[in-house]
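quick one, 423 residues, struct below
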Amino acid sequence: MKTFLQFSFFFLLVTQICFAQWYQQTSGISKTLYSVYFISDNTGWACGDDEEIIKTTDGGTNWNIQNSNPTNYLNSIFFISESTGWAVGGNYSPNLGIVLKTTNGGNTWSIQTNSLPYQLNSVYFISPTTGWVAGHANQILKTTDGGANWIPQTAEDAEYRGIYFMNENNGWAVGGDPFNTISRILKTTDGGTNWIAKTAATNNYLRALCFISETTGWVVGNSGTIFKTTDAGENWEAQTSGTTNGLYSIAFVNPDTGWIAGGSGLILFTSDGGNNWTAQNSGTVQWLASICFSSESFGWAVGSGGTIVYTTNGGVTLIGNEDIGEIPTEFLLSNNFPNPFNPSTKIKYSILQSSKVELKVFDILGNEIATLVDEYKPAGKYEVEFNAATLPSGVYFYHLIAVDPSTSSERSFIQTKKMILMK
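---
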């Protein structure tokens, strides 16, 4: 116990108490991951360089390699069910596009085509039979037989990075060119037979899009570009991102709540439909290429170096912090209850004077698992709930620091206690 405390204190001091709202998972690979997709809170896949596909069935605690082939890379992965999915990508030399399909959850992947003239960047299906892919050199293709055959559709000249459909008729595609000389937003109302160009006030390369309904959606791209539509893509209004970093992926779970992933470990969050975007601490400086949420709480982002970061609370630091309303007589961190617990437990603490409070959870190796509190608190007694539904059984530690606001160099109170998750 003493050794662990020394390690955790050293860890917190060296990192200058980095308030991570996301924490890292081990992918088992070192190559760039370009796409992540979760079909539920537990089951998901990611793909990237060397045609690698990895899968988890426990929310990302463990990832297993399903497919690896250094001949190609994979840019996008999509599942219509826990068994049926597709991954697309290609090769620069020779310049070819590839489509892979699985019907058994990824245990085996078969090549549907590897002879398309240019690499593919995005795949989207609305049913086991009907889907679209988009890529370089104006490529938008459609299938109505689960990918056995792909029919080219007519599109404006561009590289297409994202494609999204709400139903069999209404869809959108975005792209441009890497030199930011053109941007493209296309819309179809007949399943892609005809694509109509729409305009947003930018020349920046558009890289991803997301629609939450047939009328409301967003696109993101280079130089911090964000646009929103509320009329099915007829008109696009710029939103302020607060960054000039490239934005590569976007996910919304309802009309208000969404996230964007981008360069240098950037994750942006909105709770008002994009009127305001704030940066969350991803815990990494690696480029993040793709972000996916299975619910308002559970999300993943992947990127360079095999990076996977994960949140269980939507990336928002504060979780269920309740003021009990009693006046304390001392600083105190109480034993959690119940303990052992499954899957949630409550932690009570007392703050004798107004303080900057941090309450964090660590695993037995000293890895930060969650930030439960990270804000100034007036004197009082508080209770916070910790939910470990996606974590494995084992010993965990919760660590409280209350800092005297009158000084930045002294700590008023530090204490760590042990809890046991037993499933």
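The two ends are 23 Å apart (CA to CA).
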